[in-house]
Specification:
Layout (H helix, E strand, L loop, with lengths): L11 E7 L6 H9 L4 E6 L6 H7 L3 E4 L6 H14 L4 E4 L11 H9 L5 E5 L10 H18 L11 E4 H6 L9 H12 L3 E5 L12 H19 L1 H30 L4 H32 L1 H15 L1
Parallel strand pairs: 1-2, 1-4, 2-3, 5-7
Antiparallel strand pairs: 4-6, 5-6
The chain binds guanosine-5'-triphosphate (GTP) and magnesium ion (MG).
Length: 314
Amino acid sequence: MEEVNRSRSPRVIVAIPCFNEERFIGSVVAKAKRYVDRVVVIDDGSTDDSAEVAEAAGATVYRHPKNQGYGAAISSALEQGRTLGAEVLVILDGDGQHDPKDIPRLIQPILEGKADIVIGSRFLEKANRIPLYRRIGQRVLNTATNVSSGQKLTDSQSGCRAYSAAALEKLKLSERGMAVSSQMQFAIKEAGLRVAEVPIAVLYAEKAKRSPVGHGVNVFTRVLVLFTLRHPMVIFGTPALICWGIGLWFGFRTLDIYSDTNKLASGHALATILFCLAGLLGLFAALMLQAMRELIRGEASDIVKQIYKKISRE
Ligand SMILES: Nc1nc2c(ncn2[C@@H]2O[C@H](COP(=O)(O)OP(=O)(O)OP(=O)(O)O)[C@@H](O)[C@H]2O)c(=O)[nH]1
Ligand SMILES: [Mg+2]
């Protein structure tokens, strides 16, 4: 792909999260520099020479004093994009798995005003050779993230993305680990950002750095938590209703048996109490989470303000 003519283009910055990538970061920075105005490396507390190598290759290095996780590095990258006045910010991995040649294709929909965020999808590029176990794991995480966020993407975990200035303003993320990409999908939906996906190349030459199962389970659990926090009534309210239904059934059976035999069926009575208690707990959890959610979103404080206004008028 040809290099972008930078003379009349908006300010494009690349930010690269980096944790102990001294073997690759230099060449990633050098290649990325050809396509953008500035390359920033977010050194996430590396204990090797990543920061020095990145600097020597021409990057500005922003350092975390200690390792904080991929998500924290992404938040710092977005922050750097805002601080440096990026009109387009590209984020790609520092381990050489992404190809900086894809940058022009990645930023195109933003430059044309067609998208606020562009996801580089590994699964739209047929030539990519992705190990089977990774494809299966990614498929599970895609489905979980797509269904729970309501935003459909072909590659929910892609680390190669481009952001417009508007997207940078709206995206504030709290996940510190690998689940940050899934959290972003929730945030995209909630902020109503326009998304485009473009095919990107990906290279799987090295062994996976961490256990794919552990990684998958961790992201999956965080997706469940993100969904629960947004829909507490579905997650806790539905089982609570089912528990009450079962509790009621046992209750009626207990009464039935008592009226027929004049004896208390203690097993049925105990089941009635247990299921009704579980239902009550579920409802309590749902209401608590819903209240917290409204407080966080400021809805409750708006209600308090309205009541206060009304009282002061009277
Ligand atoms: N694993 C990890 N990567 C980090 C961290 N902070 C920043 N990174 C960088 O984030 C990018 C993505 O991390 P990777 O470990 O390569 O994630 P991945 O590509 O999903 O996993 P692999 O297929 O094993 O490479 C790399 O450029 C890392 O250097 C961190 O705390 N842990
Ligand atoms: Mg990688």
